[in-house]
Amino acid sequence: MKYSIIFLLVTLNLFICLTTTADDIISDPSELPHILVEHHAQTLQQASLPNITQISFSTSNSIAPYFFANKSQGVQYELLVTALELSDIAMTELVHAPNLRAQRLVSTKRIDCMINTPDHVEGMFYTQSLIEYQNSVFYLTKNKLNIHKIEDLKSISMLGFQNAAKYLGEEFSEISVQNPLYSEISNQKSQVVMLFNGHIQSVVLERRIFEYYRHLLQKKLDTSQAVTEVALFAPAERKIACHDKHTAAVLDQAITTLKQSYHYQEILSLAEQNSYQPAQQANRLTK
Question: Which UniProt keywords apply (predicted)?
Fold first, then answer.
């Protein structure tokens, strides 16, 4: 009898342990997204897209280091071509043209898609952003300028890129009018030269563009001087727009595939390491 009771107690204890373990394993399915379900949904989405194997593009005139008019290079170019290659899509043409003409090439269906399309263009279908541009204020650290917000730019001599007052928001636009020491120039290389030569207190320029010219000019002037960057403006998304919604959907999926791969960060990191110089970049997939 004694052994029977002990056996029952041991059996009961074992049952409780097994029950507790099972309860611990079972969880609310809504709390844990099922990887297979997500993968299946993505596969279905890809399968529903049309089979588009080639796309032509237009973009604004060369914006170093993102695109180079006479070279198949540039950090944004590398991202786009890699996205296409990962999805077995060929770039049939890349036309560099002024903004309005680049846009008209797409609206008249001469070209499929425009890179860096302005927002809300009628009749265009947009992808997600391929890359973001970071516009900032740069000044020589030794000058110890007190810049923490846009309002602090009221009395500082500034040289902005062309149409900066139009693109960087209402508050900056008002400051550009109020500040008699503010001006704009189309030559971004000259902005960097004037900053390091001390002809201007600050420049308003995109981060990668600044670093590109800073490195390019290092043999002509002292660009090793410490520089302070103040990112007063929100990152600007760079989207692609197409005249055909199916083409835009296929391209959008290609960008998603790129961003989910290691290639995306690899391209950005390599470009940064090489100061965005085109000779250091290569359009190859390291598989």
Answer: Signal
Backbone angles phi, psi at 237, to 5 degrees: -70, 140
Host H or E run for residue 13: helix 2-25
Q: Biggest alpha carbon distance in the chain?
A: 103
Helices (H), 113-155: none
Q: Which residues of the chain are modeled with pLDDT < 50? A: 1-12, 14-41, 43-44, 281-287
Q: Give the pLDDT of residue 45.
A: 52
Rounded Cα distance between 8 and 6, Å, is 5
Nearest Cα residue to 259 out of 161, 131, 149: 131
Encoded amino acid at 241, one letter = A
User: Would residue 224 be called left, alpha or beta, if left means φ above 0 and alpha means ψ between -120 and 50 degrees?
Assistant: alpha
Q: How far apart are CA 46 and CA 250, in angstroms?
A: 8
> Is-contact 106 114, C-beta < 8 A?
yes
Pick the CATH number of 135-230 from 3.40.309.10, 3.40.190.10, 3.30.310.80, 2.60.40.420: 3.40.190.10
Give ranges for CATH 3.40.190.10 in the chain: 50-132+238-280, 135-230
